[in-house]
Amino acid sequence: MAKQGGGVGFKLLTAGGTVAAAWVARKSVTTAWKLVTGNEPPANPEDPEVEWAEAVGWALLSGAVIGLARLAASRQSAVVYRRVTGVQPADANAAAS
């Protein structure tokens, strides 16, 4: 069984990485939305004035891309932590929580 470590350092690495990844993903999705639709994404998809198709499309696209970016960042933080410290972070399974 591999040694496990972690704690505050791993949590900070994961938090910083996921925040940055989510920000980049949000900017990318917003730019893609503008290019494809020619419009700004809905500021508030829950607003009854926003058409269902637009609200659902934005929710699906942004949720999927941002979720995948956060997952990738969380997994990569475990790889980086292990490479730097030589131990598997104990919190790697809880990092995405």
Secondary structure blueprint with pairings:
Layout: E1 4-5, H1 8-37, H2 52-85, E2 88-89
Parallel strand pairs: 1-2
Helix pairs in contact: 1-2
Brief summary:
The chain has helices spanning 8-37, 52-85; strands spanning 4-5, 88-89.
Low-pLDDT regions: none
Instruction: Please list the strands of the largest sheet in the order they lie side by side.
Output: 1-2
**So how many helices?**
2
Q: Average the pLDDT over all residues and give the rounded result.
A: 88
Helix-strand category: mainly alpha
Integer-rounded radius of gyration: 17 Å
How many domains make up the coordinates? 1
Strand content: under 5%
Give me the strand/helix succession.
Answer: EHHE
User: What's the overall geometry?
Assistant: elongated
Number of E-state strands: 2
Distance from N terminus to C terminus (CA atoms, Å) equals 24 Å
Helical content class = 55-70%
Query: What does the main sheet amount to?
Result: 2 strands, parallel
Describe this structure in words.
The protein is mainly alpha-helical. It has one domain. The chain has helices at about 10-35, 50-85; strands at about 5, 90. Strands 1-2 form a two-stranded parallel ribbon. The longest helix has about 35 residues, at about 50-85. It is elongated.
List keywords for this structure.
97 residues; mainly alpha; two-stranded parallel sheet; 4% strand; membrane; transmembrane helix; transmembrane; DUF4235
